[in-house]
Write a structure and sequence with these properties.
Strand order of the largest sheet: 2-1-3
CATH class: Mainly Alpha
Structural class: mainly alpha
Oligomer: single chain
Largest sheet: 3 strands, antiparallel
CATH topology: Lysozyme
Number of helices: 9
Distance between the termini: 26 Å
Length: 212
């Protein structure tokens, strides 16, 4: 995750209201005249078509996570790896009004459930917190799974508040930062890593919700 700093201006937003939880997980896409793919879970253009099958991205569990270090395994293996962190996820999900399935999907793509993962940019742990961002989120020890998951989930809630629960934009901001989303016209930036990240997380979120 490459969050820009400072994020302090967003922290005041986190508890001003209880916005809708992240979206239902449907994903729509279209390719424009320049060959650029656009994604949303709230289509406002007739060109958008629903991405109909999670199986279209069945290979995701065999690709390297966006933050990451280790190749991902298949779903049963991912479920086993997530086991030690389920209680932490449950607590964070309840605290920040987020779906557990979403936090798990972000964790899978960010770190492959590896609490010692560190990215080439220096992002740490399960949900890949940058050290400066961890400080701003009041995470005392980003290597501690409980604190890391709580901090990452808090940032997801901040992004959910900022984008009124629009899952596509909140995930794009989690990966590339809200400034990159703003510069892209309040849409997913035309950054291959970020576009792939959004697709992966939403696909895994849908699979988690379906129990696959």
């Amino acid at each position: 995750m490459g969050w820009p700093s400072p994020i302090a201006s967003f922290l005041a937003l986190s508890f001003l209201a209880a916005p809708p939880a992240a979206g239902a997980g449907e994903l729509y896409s279209y390719k424009d005249a320049d060959g650029v793919m656009h994604f949303t879970n709230a289509p406002s253009d007739a060109r958008f078509r629903k991405v109909s099958r999670t199986s279209e991205v069945a290979g995701l569990y065999r690709t390297a996570p966006a933050g990451g270090s280790a190749p991902q395994g298949r779903q049963p293996e991912a479920a086993a790896r997530s086991g030690p962190y389920r209680d932490h996820v449950r607590v964070a999900a309840a605290k920040y009004n987020l779906p557990e399935a979403l936090i798990l999907a972000v964790m899978a793509v960010e770190s492959n459930f590896n609490p010692r993962a560190i990215s080439d940019k220096g992002a740490i742990g399960l949900m890949q917190l940058m050290p400066k961002t961890a400080d701003e989120l009041q995470v005392a020890d980003a290597w501690d799974p409980a604190q890391n998951i709580e901090g990452g989930s808090r940032y997801l809630r901040l992004m959910a508040n900022l984008y009124a629960g629009d899952m596509v934009r909140m995930l794009a901001a989690y990966n590339a930062g809200p400034e990159a989303v703003r510069r892209a016209g309040d849409a997913v930036p035309n950054i291959p890593e970020t576009r792939e990240y959004v697709q992966k997380v939403i696909a895994l979120y849908r699979a988690n919700r379906a129990g696959r």
